[in-house]
Design a protein that fits this description.
alpha+beta; about 40% helix
Length: about 150
C-alpha cells in the first residue's frame, strides 16, 4: 500500500491522509489555509464501530480480527459539493474537518489545499514512516555473519 498521492485515484489518497492524520492536525492546517465555508450536515458526526478483517499470513482466508471505533460524517457545501469522512477513534471535530476538506477538494480551492494541507500531511506521514523503519532496522539481527563451524 502506498502512502503517497495516487495519480490514478487522488480522492482515495487524500481521504487516506485525512483519516490517518494526528488528532487536531487537519483542523489546524485547514484553519490556517482558508476560512471555513458554510455547509449543511447530511450526517452529523457520529461514533460507532466497524469490524476489522485480516488474513493469516496475508494470504490465508479472511477472519474477523476485532472491532474498531470510528467517527463518520457527511456534509454538503452551499455550492453542492459533498464531503465524507471516516476517522479512527472518537474525534468528531477531526471528522468534521476531514469531511470539509474532502468537499473543498472538489472545488477551485483544491490547488491551494493540496499545497498547504495535503503536502504537509504527506511529508509528516513519510517522516513518521521513516522513523518507524529506522527504529525497526536498529533491532535487526543478521544471523548470516556467524561461523557455521564447517571448514
Amino acid at each position: 500500500m502506498k502512502d503517497t498521492l495516487d495519480e490514478n485515484n487522488p480522492r482515495k489518497a487524500w481521504m487516506g491522509l485525512l483519516a490517518k492524520a494526528p488528532e487536531g492536525r487537519v483542523a489546524a492546517l485547514l484553519d490556517e489555509a482558508i476560512a471555513r465555508p458554510a455547509f449543511n450536515w447530511l450526517r452529523a458526526p457520529e461514533i460507532g464501530t466497524t469490524m476489522v478483517r485480516a488474513r493469516a499470513g496475508a494470504t490465508g482466508a479472511p477472519f474477523n480480527l476485532g472491532e474498531m471505533t470510528i467517527t463518520r460524517c457527511a456534509l454538503t457545501l452551499e455550492t453542492g459539493e459533498v464531503g465524507h469522512a471516516y476517522i479512527q477513534g472518537r474525534r468528531k471535530a477531526d471528522a468534521e474537518a476531514a469531511a470539509l476538506v474532502d468537499a473543498l477538494m472538489q472545488t477551485d480551492a483544491a490547488t491551494k489545499l493540496r499545497e498547504v494541507l495535503l503536502a504537509p500531511l504527506e511529508a509528516e506521514s513519510a517522516t513518521a514512516k521513516a522513523a518507524r523503519a529506522a527504529k525497526a532496522a536498529a533491532t535487526k539481527v543478521d544471523f548470516f555473519t556467524m561461523a557455521r563451524g564447517e571448514d
